[in-house]
Design goal:
alpha/beta, nine-stranded mixed sheet, elongated
Length: about 350
Amino acid sequence: MLKVAVIGAGVNGVSSAIKILEHFQNANRNVQVTIISDEFSPNTTGDGSAGLWGPFLLGGTDEKKVYKWSKDVHQFLEQIWLSEDAGEAGVCLLPCVRLSTDPNASVGDFWRDIVYGAVDLTPSQLEVYNRNRDVKFTSGLSFVTYTSEPIKLLPYLMKRFVRRGGIVQQQRVTNLEGFVKDSSYDVIVNCTGLGSRQLLNDEQMYSVRGQVSRVKANWIYSALLDESDDGNYIIPNTESVVLGGTHQEKDYNLKVCPQDKSFIIDGCRRLLPGLNHAEHLFDWVGLRPGRDQLRLEAERCGSKLVIHNYGHGGSGVTLAWGCAEDVLQLLLAAQLKSKL
């Protein structure tokens, strides 16, 4: 029996575990897959995020790979949204508007053919958002995509994993080399995110601090995102609206910063004045796993196979299912070469 350990219980770890488990079971091949982590939902980094689909903070990661991975996820979310599991998984179809104040660029990302109905805003539509603004928006993109709230998506995925016989083990792994050497697993999938900085002494890893506020504003039905470097965003979830946000590189402060809170609240109110009357619920801080490039590759450690899948920046949910497919393919390719 092939024994696989996936270290990390964030959305990329759980997705990788499901992909491997379901593939081997569907092929009638014996496999045991264990997710190992010291933290599980609702205590992962992703649990506080809005879960809006969209590549974000990925450094110099190959755009073609990002396109493939994010398209896979969009199709995966579409399947959930069309199923009876949509509510349980926290998957919603959401109109979005992205705006830019850069006069030398237009909002028109490489992924616009993945989302639904992407169209550039007309000058008259931009004028609606430019009222009472000193710095004007010069371009915008309107489209429809998905949110998949990790605080709901992660328990849904974990339930799917356990239902198929997956094993969950709470354990803190502090030395990957020692774990690989001493464990009985044939394959180890490293999905430790920012933890890979210490686990592997990966100096390319760094935190991208994100602080958000959540408010009660049930009348907001679409996302509004200012793409400026210091821009704000407004993203509705099923039970609250996420106001953001920050992306402070190499900042490891997990405490709520009053100055950041003022920047978020005041900025979002300028974008959408009706938020002046929204009830404030709570604030949250998380550290995104930033990296110069996302790492998704396999290496041999003696008779063991180690697959690394980390450094997803602000795109954990957006890339998870697509990256998990590549993790599976790396495992299958290694089996063909060595009969693992």
